[in-house]
Write a structure and sequence with these properties.
The complex is a heterodimer of chains A (about 325) and B (about 290). Chain A is mainly α and about 325 residues long. Chain A has one domain: MetI-like fold. Chain A contains eleven helices and five strands, in the order ααββαααβααααββαα. The longest helix of chain B is centred in the N-terminal third of the chain and has 35 residues. The chains are: A mainly alpha (about 325), B mainly alpha (about 290).
Chain lengths: ~325, ~290
């Protein structure tokens, strides 16, 4: 499969982009201890002073924010938080959803349906609304007070973002597995004595894998969008510090914080919130590329193995079975 | 007799379904009471559920408070609700019409071009809604600076209502989503023999599309529209915040208490539930092959 994946140029470029971003980000905190280039005053040749924020230029590729921090540097520092959290949340969502879905698919129909209707509201009510409602008090704290430790806050936020999405995924996957279980090939495998784990591994997984790949992409986009929404609503990943005058700051330098802090001023300095949004978009598009590459590679490798297993029928040139009598 | 029995059974199931979902919403609405800071507090949670049920049974007792001024919840939340519904319904209709027109145009084109368009729709769909909102706002302000014409109001101040820009902003991602789904379903439909029969009989492309294909496509579209509604609602939430419009989501955000939140959830969920049940009731015989 990897052999086919490497041949997809778009997907590999996208993967390289994301990996570089995360590696640079981790490198920044390991080597520079998370320091970020900061220039608050600039003098031009005539000696006139200009103050931050600076618009994008050759000196600052993406401009600076109001405190003079270099935005490109900030983005790189924040990448590991945002992308890492997004991937982790998505992965956990799907893992838990899959496990529960596998269990639920074995339930009798009335029980399954009652579970489904109990959680039905989750499929209609916006995630942003629920998670904002729950997270808002837990994650904002004013400057000077001692909040809960950082890892607890991050864990709590991740848990909320995972738990509230699990029901929808569970029922989606549960229904898919149920449908597959009613297929003829699964039934015949059952008659031949296949148990549930065997059926899952051998007969259902091959049909479920492409669905999971697509689901992963959808969920990842969804997680990033929810993080963006929460950022705009000023609930940042890892916590929001509220200063005395109503100013806010993010604990980590993750992207949503940049977005939420500067979006009120985006009419005057449009580049500050646009930069994180741009990187969000790039990340999402990169993921689209990677997953479509994976999907294609998966398909190719299946075709290949199918071709390997079925030995081609050798066509023997038919000997003339009759000849003309003359 | 058999039919009546199955009808009774069906309505009984619907009732059970509704009750279970309402219980689900109430337990969901009370979740903030479950967390005391970051730790769990189960007794407080059950207490909150009890209080919530008690106050929901007596709607006139529901209140919301703002800086210690307590006001009754009920007429106010409905006014806000109407505002949200207006924006939601108008952009739903606008997007649907636009999507149908786009899909019709695409069916007239060369399949190779359609494939290109499909790909680009995939990328467009992955743009976050906030990017679209920001670009639109910037564009309108830029237009205003250049020409002096303010096409639509950019943001609301005070009690002023703005609708044009929220509707446009909500319609753009929705149109993209709808077009993608409708295009997929239309292509599926065009494979079917009745379409070839219709065009073989000499019906024009226009007639075949609007009289025969579209009906079937829309039927399925409305049947599977739950995810779309969900996506639209979550976009609406952020759009209301951005444009400072006075919809129900902002109401919940500003005056958040367990009661307001739960009432808002009920107001959003129940109409959608009724819509799906009615739709299922009236069209299930048409959709046998799907369900």
């Amino acid at each position: 499969m990897w052999y086919y994946f490497i041949r997809q140029k778009k997907a590999v470029t996208a993967l390289l982009f994301l990996v570089t971003l995360v590696v640079l980000s981790i490198g920044n905190s390991v080597i520079y201890d998370g320091e970020i280039r900061r220039v608050s005053l600039l003098f031009d040749e005539n000696g006139t002073v200009s103050a931050a924020p600076f618009a994008p230029s050759a000196k600052f590729l993406l401009g600076t924010d109001r405190k003079g921090y270099d935005l490109l540097h900030l983005i790189i520092e924040g990448a590991k938080w945002t992308i890492g959290a997004g991937l982790l949340i998505t992965f956990m969502r799907i893992l838990i959803g899959l496990l529960l879905g596998i269990t639920l698919a074995k339930f009798k129909k009335p029980l399954f349906q009652s579970f489904e209707s109990f959680f039905d509201s989750f499929s209609v009510i916006p995630m942003t609304m629920i998670s904002y409602f729950v997270l808002q008090h837990a994650l904002t704290f004013s400057n000077g007070t001692t909040p809960e430790p950082f890892y607890l806050r991050v864990g709590f936020q991740m848990m909320i973002l995972i738990i509230f999405a699990v029901p929808t995924i569970t029922f989606y996957l549960g229904n898919e597995i149920k449908l597959l279980l009613h297929e003829e090939f699964v039934r015949s495998a059952k008659i031949l004595g296949g148990r549930y784990p065997h059926l899952l591994r051998k007969h259902i997984a091959p049909h479920l894998n492409p669905i999971l790949i697509i689901l992963f992409l959808q969920q990842f986009i969804q997680v990033l969008v929810i993080l963006i929404h929460l950022g705009v609503l000023q609930v940042f990943f890892g916590g929001t510090i509220v200063f005395h005058g109503g100013d806010i700051d993010s604990v980590t330098h993750e992207w949503t914080g940049l977005l939420g802090m500067y979006y009120p001023s985006f009419m005057s300095h449009p580049w500050i919130p646009l930069v994180p949004i741009l990187f969000f978009t790039l990340t999402i598009i990169a993921c689209t590329f990677i997953l479509s590459g994976l999907e294609r590679a998966y398909l190719f490798s299946k075709q290949k193995s199918f071709r390997d297993q079925t030995t081609p029928i050798e066509v023997i040139p038919a000997a003339p079975s009759f000849s003309f009598v003359k | 007799m058999n039919k009546v029995m199955s009808g009774v059974k069906h309505s009984l199931f619907t009732c059970i379904h509704l009750v279970l979902s309402l219980v689900g919403i109430i337990t969901l609405g009370a979740t903030p009471a479950l967390f005391n800071g970051l730790s769990l507090n189960i007794t407080q949670y059950f207490q909150a559920i009890g209080n919530l049920v008690a106050s929901l049974l007596e709607p006139s007792s529901l209140t919301y408070s703002y800086y210690k001024v307590v006001r009754p919840l009920f007429p106010e939340i409905l006014i806000r609700y109407k505002e949200s519904i207006t924006i939601f319904a108008s952009s739903f209709i606008i997007s649907l019409i636009l999507a149908i027109v786009i899909v019709y145009c695409l069916t007239c084109l060369d399949p190779r071009i359609v494939n290109k368009v499909k790909q680009s729709f995939g990328y467009l769909e992955s743009l976050p809604d906030i990017l679209i909102i920001m670009i639109l706002q910037l564009f309108i302000v830029w237009l205003f600076k250049k020409t002096g014409i303010l096409v639509v109001e950019v943001a609301a101040a005070g009690d002023q209502k703005i609708r044009a820009l929220p509707i446009i902003c909500l319609s753009i991602p929705t149109t993209i989503m709808f077009t993608k789904i409708l295009l997929f379903r239309t292509e599926e439909e065009y494979e079917k023999p009745y379409v070839s029969l219709a065009s073989g009989k000499g019906l024009s492309h226009f007639t075949v599309f609007f009289k025969h294909v579209l009906r079937n496509v829309l039927l399925r579209f409305f049947f599977f529209t739950k995810t779309n509604i969900w996506l639209m609602l979550s976009n609406l939430y952020i759009i209301e915040y951005f444009f400072n419009s006075i919809g129900i989501f902002i109401f919940v955000k500003d005056y958040n208490s367990i009661e307001t939140f739960t009432v808002a959830l009920l107001l959003i969920y129940i109409p959608i539930f009724i819509y799906f049940q009615l739709f299922r009731l009236f069209t299930s015989h048409l959709l046998k092959e799907v369900v």
